[in-house]
Automatic annotation (TrEMBL):
This is DMT family protein. The keyword Transmembrane applies. Keywords: Membrane, Transmembrane, Transmembrane helix. It comes from Flavobacterium agri. InterPro entries: DUF486 (IPR007437). The chain crosses the membrane at residues 36-55, 76-96, 102-120. The keyword Transmembrane helix applies. Pfam families: DMT_6 (PF04342). It comes from the Bacteria.
Amino acid sequence: MKGFITIGLLILSNVFMTLAWYGHLKFKEWKWFEGAGLVAIVFISWGLALFEYFFQVPANRIGFRENGGPFSLMQLKVIQEVITLVVFVGFSLLFFKGESFKWNHAVGFCFLVLAVYFIFKK
């Protein structure tokens, strides 16, 4: 159960992280952000990133083996990276219509899945 909670929290964390890191690139399309300067955008993104930490820190604490969770530190990191890329691809395809998912991206993801396999191998 802790594994599922950890992964769910990591997904939520990565949604906020992706919005903070890349969502601001679409702000110019929204009327109420079009005049915002770089400093304002940084603070808005920082505010979004705060919510990332509300999910990321508990996910790592719950999921970490030494806190009674099912994952080692390396496993937590690899899970987080794969989730980050999956969330990012979904985000970029939904919000950035000019971006595409190509064969080399699929190959890269296959290597990441292999990384997960090897990290979890005893």
